[in-house]
Design goal:
- The structure is a single chain.
- The protein is mainly alpha-helical.
- Helices cover 66% and strands 2% of the residues.
- A hairpin with a 6-residue loop joins strand 1 and strand 2.
């Protein structure tokens, strides 16, 4: 809305064109989202479902009675701000629709007296990620850049959709599994969104820089960066109240759309391996547990059975790390590894 308004008003008086500046929108979006989340969350969280605690989770009883599903609130705020700052297009509107669907499925699970069966959630996720993959490619071939080669690859729709859907599904569930320590999921996701936003705005989204790096230039990179930074703002307002000891929890209503957006931004940046670079800790922390359970359930193989998953539970229960120690150490590991791995990903080609 502001983007279109800026283009219109610039014809009347040139300086008003700042409203369509991506730099302005990338600053205004997160500030507005953060302010709205900070103000509105306390007004509505009493209407949210109450957490019932988590079985087989270290300190799982400490969350009992806290408002959960507050991802419903900050995701509505995020969608509103995105509609305000982004150009209206099928891609962005479609992606926002998929994020809202992921949020609603998570919220209904948060409010259910009996948690939904994992197969039911997996089936719902499957439908959402396939829809998101179709939105992201627009039923057209997609240009990817990959490690260890400077060749660009045009990926046909019939390959892109299943690969993208698998990445999105894994990202949703790994992120969901990471939401078990105050501030951890939101902090790691915020860090990933900042790195992805920077890459989208000043790397693949910048024609000159992209040429020098030997990566494709995506004209919509700056717009995707605005979506990433806006989510950082919405999460900042939420994390204010989720700091240990937390007052509220995002629940599946927050973690599932966060995982979907994380995967979508990775695909928008044109390299699926970026998920390992910007969210490696999330994947190891939550995703390794999914792999472990799958091996046990479908192949009766016990893999690292002495290690608890999600990994943050192992650190608390077996290594006796405190919640602040888990948070700070996991975030520091990701913050240090991402620039190094990103440099390797771009240069080792």
């Amino acid at each position: 809305m502001l983007y279109s308004l800026g283009e219109l008003l610039a014809k009347v008086w040139g300086p008003l064109g700042f409203l369509s500046s991506r730099l302005f929108l990338a600053a205004f979006g997160p500030l507005l989202a953060a302010a709205l989340a900070w103000v509105l969350l306390p007004r509505f969280w009493e209407r949210m479902p109450r957490d019932h605690g988590k079985a087989f989770v270290a300190d799982g009883t400490k969350s009992v009675g806290k408002p959960t599903g507050t991802g419903f609130i900050f995701m509505i705020i995020y969608a509103f701000v995105c509609l305000l700052v982004l150009p209206l297009s099928f891609t962005y509107l479609g992606m926002l629709g998929c994020l809202i669907l992921a949020m609603l499925s998570g919220f209904l699970d948060d409010g259910s007296e009996k948690p939904w069966h994992e197969y039911k959630k997996a089936a719902l996720d499957a439908g959402i990620v396939v829809a998101a993959a179709l939105v992201l490619c627009g039923l057209k071939p997609v240009e990817w850049w990959l490690p260890f080669t400077r060749h660009m690859f045009y990926v046909p729709v019939w390959i892109f959709v299943p690969v993208a859907a698998a990445l999105l599904w894994f990202s949703i569930n790994a992120t969901n599994c990471t939401d078990g320590v105050d501030n951890l999921c939101g902090s790691l996701c915020s860090l990933a969104f900042i790195y992805l936003g920077a890459l989208l705005a000043f790397g693949v989204g910048h024609e000159v820089v992209a040429g020098r790096l030997g990566v494709p230039h995506y004209a919509d990179g700056a717009d995707w960066a605005v979506t990433a930074f806006t989510m950082v703002g919405a999460l900042a307002g939420y994390l204010w109240y989720n700091a240990n000891p937390s007052t509220i929890l995002m629940g599946d209503a927050g973690s599932r759309p966060l995982g979907l957006l994380l995967g979508a931004l990775v695909l928008a940046a044109g390299n699926p391996f970026l998920i390992l670079v910007v969210a490696g800790v999330i994947l190891v922390n939550g995703g390794a547990g999914l792999f472990k359970v799958a091996l046990k359930r479908f192949f009766n193989i016990e893999f690292l059975w002495t290690i608890r998953f999600p990994l943050h539970d192992h650190m608390k229960q077996n290594l006796k790390w405190s919640v602040p120690q888990v948070l700070v150490r996991f975030v520091l590991i990701q913050a240090v590894l991402t620039p190094l791995l990103l440099l390797l990903l771009i240069k080792a080609r």
